[in-house]
TrEMBL record:
<protein>
    <submittedName>
        <fullName>DNA-binding response regulator</fullName>
    </submittedName>
</protein>
<dbReference type="GO" id="GO:0000156">
    <property type="term" value="F:phosphorelay response regulator activity"/>
</dbReference>
<keyword id="KW-0238">DNA-binding</keyword>
<keyword id="KW-0597">Phosphoprotein</keyword>
<feature type="modified residue" description="4-aspartylphosphate">
    <location>
        <position position="55"/>
    </location>
</feature>
<feature type="domain" description="Response regulatory">
    <location>
        <begin position="3"/>
        <end position="116"/>
    </location>
</feature>
<dbReference type="Pfam" id="PF04397">
    <property type="entry name" value="LytTR"/>
</dbReference>
<dbReference type="GO" id="GO:0003677">
    <property type="term" value="F:DNA binding"/>
</dbReference>
<dbReference type="Pfam" id="PF00072">
    <property type="entry name" value="Response_reg"/>
</dbReference>
<dbReference type="InterPro" id="IPR007492">
    <property type="entry name" value="LytTR_DNA-bd_dom"/>
</dbReference>
<dbReference type="InterPro" id="IPR001789">
    <property type="entry name" value="Sig_transdc_resp-reg_receiver"/>
</dbReference>
<feature type="domain" description="HTH LytTR-type">
    <location>
        <begin position="146"/>
        <end position="248"/>
    </location>
</feature>
<dbReference type="InterPro" id="IPR046947">
    <property type="entry name" value="LytR-like"/>
</dbReference>
<dbReference type="InterPro" id="IPR011006">
    <property type="entry name" value="CheY-like_superfamily"/>
</dbReference>
Length: 248
């Protein structure tokens, strides 16, 4: 569910957008609306929405000024306007999308889908950050586990048992010392900082290696890490100095 707010100086536009969302984007629940931008700012602060549909051209205060008055905001924004010249400014405000009135249903559905995807990744990032915080707070890391989100389950794996991680498009493959491969739906870069405090080395754009499983650094057509299980992991040219330093 996406909690949404609509701010538009024309009440008819608010009603029309609500009807479109109810029919074509039921995952969006409108928790409030306002035809006055100042009331809209208060509504945003009180409701803490995931998404704000924001009209740009309003007589008292335009949509850009609404965002400026908030100082900072952690919700997604879809600008809605009858005037096409605001597109570049909308981009500068990191809007998820920019819809022209009258609203095209397919464009609305695409914008909501993008919002849903961004919120999903934002939640994953927050979970990882919270986990990282708790891991750093603990002094004894020998029994630390991380949560690996796969398509069907969340696996809890001891960090000390992870040999290496490998990027596979937007997924991450975890290889354990027991020969198991676990597929995570989170990309590799999300694990980079988390695992660096445990001695993992980002030796390549696609590889993260637990240095305790590294047997040697080979020089053969470039550099390669030889692991105790005989796996050979490439070292990118711009990472070789970092790898050498980490292994000393």
């Amino acid at each position: 569910m996406i909690r949404g707010i609509i701010i538009d100086d024309e009440p008819n536009n608010i009603t029309n957008l609500q009807r479109l969302l109810e029919k074509y984007c039921p995952e969006v629940i409108i928790v409030g609306s306002s035809s006055d931008p100042n009331n809209g700012i208060k509504l945003i602060k009180d409701s803490q929405p995931d998404l704000v549909f924001l009209d740009i051209h309003m007589p008292e205060k335009d949509g850009f000024q609404v965002l400026k008055d908030l100082d900072s905001y952690d919700f997604e924004v879809i600008f809605v306007t009858a005037f096409s010249q605001y597109g570049i400014q909308a981009i500068k405000f990191s809007a998820i999308d920019y819809l022209l009135k009258p609203i095209d249903i397919e464009e609305l559905k695409k914008a909501v889908a993008k919002t849903s995807n961004r919120l999903k990744h934002k939640n994953q990032n927050l979970q990882l950050q919270n986990l990282l915080h708790h891991l750093k707070e603990s002094n004894n890391n020998s029994d630390h586990r991380i949560a690996i989100s796969s398509l069907k389950e969340t696996r809890f794996v001891y960090v000390k048992n992870i040999v290496r991680c490998e990027s596979e498009n937007s997924y991450t493959l975890f290889f354990t010392d027991e020969g198991e491969t676990i597929i995570s739906t989170v990309p590799l870069y999300e694990y980079d900082e988390m695992l660096s405090i445990y001695g993992f080395i980002r030796c390549h754009q696609s590889h993260l290696v637990n240095k305790k499983y590294v047997r040697s650094l080979l020089k053969e057509d470039g550099y390669t890490l030889l692991l105790y299980n005989q796996n050979r992991i490439p070292v990118s040219r711009n990472k070789k100095d970092l790898v050498k330093k980490a292994l000393v």
